[in-house]
Amino acid sequence: MKGNNGEHPFGDVGQLVLLGLFLVVWVGDSFFLRMSTFLSDYVPLYIRLVVLGLALVTAAYLFMSGHIVVSHERRATGVISTGAFRYVRHPLYLGCILFYLGLSVATASLFSVALLGVIFVFYNYIASYEEKLLDDRFAEHYGSYKKRTGKWVPRIGIGG
Questions:
Q1: Which of 6, 74, 85, 148: disulfide with 1, CB 3.0–4.6 Å?
Q2: How many independent structural domains does the chain possess?
């Protein structure tokens, strides 16, 4: 796929930069500055921890199930529609987003939530770029897959 295995040329670097930025903002706001964590006074810790747990468990499933696309010894050569790919087209990216969301909710850091909005825009951009490459490479197979599988949210009631 144009020499880059279907990934955006700046996808990996962008993800690492955003991870570092997120961790700095999240740790700084959540544990030191506490400038935007006032909602933690109103939302009980156990609720925030349940959301964190659910987000992390779901993210772990998405990472483990979606790992086939980055595993070099089992790299896929066609459209994958099993595991987490049965539900969403970008399980690895969605897993990252859920990880960030879980941490943000756990400490009620609004700065982190705002940064998560930027992170989502980035992931959506690289996912759209990669989908265009997949459309070009797998034409009707990928088009059919897109019709029955949500980009970020599973499509309920549509066979897979």
A1: 6
A2: 1
